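Structure ticket #2291
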Amino acid sequence: MAVRKKRKQESDQNSADKEPETEAKSKRNKVESDSDSFNEEQNVAAGPRRENLQRNLPAGGSVSAEATLRSVRTEFIDRVSKSNLDQLLDKLLQCGVINDGEMESIKTGSRADKARDLIDTVRGKGNEPSSHFIAVLCELDPNLSRLLNLTEFKKNKVESDSGSFNEEQNVAAGEKQPAMVATPEWKRVQPLSRRLVPESEWAMFRASIVKAADRCCGPKVRKTIRVLKSSGQLHDSEAIVGKVMQKSGLRRSKTKDGNGTVFFYVSIADDTDCIKLMVYGKPHFQDINEECSYLFRKLITDEKGVKVNKHSKVSETSAVKVPEELEMEARELICVQSQVYSITEVKTLAEKYGVTVEGTVTEIYPVVETEVTAQQRMTKKQEFLLQEDKESISICMWGEDTEQIKDISVGDVVKVTNVKTSHYHSTVSLNSTGFTRILPIERAPVQKARIEIQAIQSTDPTQTFLEAVYNGLIDTFVVSTQLLASEFKLRLDGDLKKNLLKKMPFSADVEIQGRKIHTFFFIT
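Resolution: structure written out below.
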């Protein structure tokens, strides 16, 4: 009897001990359920952060470093600069990835040959040397690394290694490992305030804020760039607002009738993301400027991207604040700027080498029509001289790029981006590309003067080049043909040049900037 009573007491005690465990397990399951609901809602709200950059990104944990280098091999060879390539060689020699013999072998040859030999040598050594290569390149050239998505690989690799280490530690401690589930980065490390408040309460709080915003703001007429990219839709009553970070030169699309359509690209950014727009028409090219902010409405969205046409509305607005990392990303959507070289260095580089140069404009020549033999067509061509210290070089702008020269004057200090070297016998010059931009650094001063016009060098419907005496010396000045015709009350469609020649020589009071005439008053 006493034994039966004792067993009953032990059974009651075991039941009492299990009750708290069951209750605790139930609460834990509820918290985990609330957490999963909140995390799922957050993932939906976040949208694809940078879908366009991530689509071809190899995951650090599933794709080897050697395979990653193989996938970016061609872009690396084309884009790495000579100075960064030399530093990369030194770093890899220092950490033992390559040896002295390999170093000497790689150093002989052109920049492209060195880049090709280096990446192939490192890839042949396997994953560990390839990982060192990626880490060193990310440190030396962050812009190129971002363009090749190597920074993302490095981040994923670090997270993968960290996860493996934690798993090994848990296994060593005797813990049973659950099935691996991919966890978003934002979810891995939470702020202290998030950890102190249950996830279910955070979800309820967030939902209440969204509802309150909807009540206050009514229908959403302004979309963020992130939402536009995730939805792919923008109604006529909706708009996006962004800061123009980069603008390409004018281009002309090819059509069957041979006329073509003029267009250009801009990259814009807000505080959520960045996007590239294709913009049609010269009027938009004159109105949209880098570093300015605009409201875009009535855009066209299709599978090829977002476009601005003649029916779209583009209006300048107050400055949009853009995070620094998004500014850098937006500038690379159109073209990564070539490395800046001195004019002296440019003259030592190989044919068709991409460079950016800076200097003072010393001469601007008239636009001429020239035949492009390879394409069997005529195109516009205009040259100007750029001087740095005692060295100068001729820069030739082709096709629609000649429009950019209208915005500069002799005496302006400018930066000319993404031009390529051209060799003719012993002379080195520079040619524009589809990504060339002339960016003013310092404008020539504006001054009033009296000049005596002696002759007409050339004239077209937009510009007239005059030979005139100024300060006892004869020089070339450029003036708007419209301004000249208006002052003499002549018609543009008439024989303007013939009528002007009848009046020569004559004097005029002008306002000049360098050799560009802004105001013109004929002296009778």
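Closing remark: The domain at 446-523 is CATH 2.40.50 (OB fold (Dihydrolipoamide Acetyltransferase, E2P)).
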